[in-house]
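Give me structure tokens for this 131-residue protein.
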Amino acid sequence: MTFTVNRIDHVVVNCRDSDATVAFYVRVLGMRREVFGAGRIALVFGDQKLNVRPTGSANWVTGAVDAPGSLDLCFIADVEPEAVGEHLRACGVEITEGPVPKTGALGPMTSHYCRDPDGNLIEIASYLPHH
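Here you go.
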């Protein structure tokens, strides 16, 4: 039997301080905190979620290297690129690059880059045109 995958369901974010991580993603990216399983925490947005895993957690299988700050994540916002930059600045988040043209899974997009509390690279992109 052969198959192909059709989407990502969730990504696990290893972090040093789950409270700081959750607060950032809720405040800056509008995700919703949700508790599941045996007290685990997820950040829900659209039809996906990020599971927040404190580094060193027992009984929670992770990658070969349990290293907070090793992810590059790209999120899509359904607003114009200018609104992304304005929102990040209003939240006091340092924009490390952007707005810059990039190519995403659906074609040309405009991206802003910042970092979460663990140093993960966060790309917030818009497929909407500049105005």
